[in-house]
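can u do me a favor
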């Protein structure tokens, strides 16, 4: 039995109110008796409901359901095509049992060579010049670093859900919705090198028709989307070249500070008391083709 409430009050809703509405919608509606529920009750978005067994619960009103639907539509419209493509492919990775992060900022090493201005060709038969132990010129420009660090921001970074470090199989997936974005990325060799330093396999993901397979460097894998962003499906055109990689400590620290993505199914299951995405049993079977230690 639903209780009748007086005229709703004009309450300014925040994202916390909408989050609580979604939690009540997905759950049995057990009350928390906090300030958020007071606001939602006063706004007429939820109503107290008594079950036939006599338990007090909460139930969304028609206005509460309408508020959730409008918020969802605004969120969908706010996402760009690039973000929607990234979310769609991230959902596929989550379904495959991988742990996925987005919007990471990771430090990666790019191999640097000697400066052309300081390198001279030695005459044939002459011994190569050895650098002195101490140099009179101590300016930073005169010292050439063996490696160069840069910040890498992969669209999707994922690892396998395993307790064996050798089976993590870190991957980077770069999302490119337009051909212009893809060609711009291909012109930055240092960016691609940074991705390869962070993972064992690197893929480009784009809609079918954006580019041909021969336009992508051979060591990168290719996933294409056939159809629209809502009802399309992905196809792997080419697997990425596999190179063993051990995640550096700095990458581990960045992953610890970030929050991995969770699928809608995992969120709903968490409200029912089931295991969340990070609580699933690890997969220690090893990647395909891996030798058992």
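np, heres the sequence
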């Amino acid at each position: 039995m639903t209780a009748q409430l007086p005229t709703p009050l004009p309450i300014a809703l925040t994202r916390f109110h909408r989050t609580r509405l979604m939690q009540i919608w997905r759950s049995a509606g057990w009350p928390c008796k906090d300030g958020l529920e007071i606001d939602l009750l006063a706004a007429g978005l939820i109503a107290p409901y008594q079950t036939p067994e006599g338990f007090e619960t909460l139930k969304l009103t028609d206005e509460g359901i309408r508020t959730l639907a409008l918020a969802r539509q605004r969120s969908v419209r706010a996402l760009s095509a690039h973000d929607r493509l990234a979310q769609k492919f991230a959902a596929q990775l989550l379904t495959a049992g991988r742990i996925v992060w987005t919007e990471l900022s990771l430090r990666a090493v790019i191999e640097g060579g000697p400066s052309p201005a300081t390198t001279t060709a030695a005459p044939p038969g002459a011994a190569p010049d050895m650098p002195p132990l101490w140099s009179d010129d101590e300016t930073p420009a005169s010292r050439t670093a063996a490696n160069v660090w840069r910040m890498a921001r992969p669209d999707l970074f994922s690892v396998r859900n395993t307790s064996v470090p050798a089976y993590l199989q870190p991957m980077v997936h770069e999302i490119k919705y337009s051909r212009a974005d893809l060609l711009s990325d291909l012109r930055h060799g240092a960016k691609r090198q940074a991705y390869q330093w962070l993972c064992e396999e690197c893929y480009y993901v784009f809609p079918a028709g954006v580019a041909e397979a021969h336009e992508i460097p051979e060591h990168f894998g290719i996933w294409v989307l056939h159809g629209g962003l809502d009802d399309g499906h992905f196809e792997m055109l080419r697997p990425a070249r596999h190179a063993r990689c051990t995640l550096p400590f700095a990458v581990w620290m960045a992953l610890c500070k970030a929050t991995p993505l969770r699928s809608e199914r995992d969120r709903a299951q968490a409200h029912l008391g089931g295991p969340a995405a990070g609580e699933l049993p690890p997969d220690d079977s090893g990647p395909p083709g891996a030798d058992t230690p």
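The chain has a mean pLDDT of 79. hope that helps!!
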